[in-house]
Amino acid sequence: MLTALSCATLGAVPTLTLRNGVKMPTLAAGVYQYNSSEAFDSLSAALANGFTMIDTALDYWNQDGVGRAVRAVERSSVFVESKVPGCANPLENTTRNPFTCYRDTKKNLEKDIALLNLSFVDSVILHFPPFPSFVVRSCGELSGSCEMIRSQWNAMQEFYDAGKTRAIGVSNFCPSCLECLKGAKTQPHVNQIMYHLGSGVNTKAQDLIAYHKEHGIVTQGYSTLGNTPFTHHASADILHGNLTTSIAAAHNVSTVQIALKWVVAQGIVAITKSSNPKHLASDVDLWSWNLTDADMAALNGHRSPDSPSYPSFACSS
Questions:
Q1: Arithmetic mean of pLDDT, 179-183
Q2: C-alpha torsion sign, points 186, 192, 193, 198
Q3: In this structure, are strands 27-30 and 23-25 parallel, antiparallel, or unpaired?
Q4: Per-residue model confidence (pLDDT) at position 221
Q5: What is the pLDDT of residue 230?
Q6: Which end of the chain is more exposed for a tag (fewer CB within 10 A), N or C?
Q7: Taking residues 20-30, what's their average pLDDT?
Q8: Mean per-residue pLDDT for 141-161?
């Protein structure tokens, strides 16, 4: 069973059960675009206000602050997810060489937990597919993408088998990239994609989520407030739009809570972030109230001007 939603949780946040039995919280505190000090402050507030999962990445360059925040609490009380870069990216110093994907990934995995100063992470994922997918918008044998993915996955598998992570997955993978891993010893437990209110009308997003369900992959959503990977700002349509404002008023909650609730109500892990403790506390308060069927229908059909054309910036098929 893919996502047995459980209220026997690490805290107040319900969990989803991965195919290997590991329980993953349905809400995570992110640290993208924070420096180490900001990451420490934000995560310390998030953990104090009920968050039980952290989402970080090696190339966020704030691992020191993330690790300090985690080590300040009981390790078993927080689910730590990190990411290592995809292969052959000319902008990423550690993975530029397409012929050393396996070696570079092994180094990055070890570097990641060393910088976090943790003995293990709960989940680690490939941050994006190999760079050729950005060019041809898909993965395949001819472009070399599949070979690079499998090389990286071998390093991920070894890391998993060594007990240094409890789960392995991917991010920004489209079906053609996931197909490269058919036959792998361990299939991806998760795929992290761009997903927020307005994505419900995106056929490609829904097709990808259907692919995940068919293959036992948990969907995680980043940019859940409509902020793109390149901006700090949440979508004005989500924060101040007529639909979210009216539904929020009916439930006496914020528009941010409406946007996050819509994501988790679909069995999708929502990743969000804030430096404001009050906002973090309200972000966690998603399970003391419910959206009505009419609310969900309206939100599912909402077409936002900020909706991405595809839930991955790396590929589209």
A1: 97
A2: positive
A3: unpaired
A4: 97
A5: 65
A6: N
A7: 98
A8: 97
Which residue ranges form the domains of the chain, and what is each CATH number?
A: 15-300 (3.20.20.100)
Of 8, 2, 19, 24, which is closest to residue 270 (Cα–Cα)?
Answer: 24
State how far the Cα of 82 lies from the Cα of 117, in Å rounded to an integer.
13
- Its pTM stands at 0.94
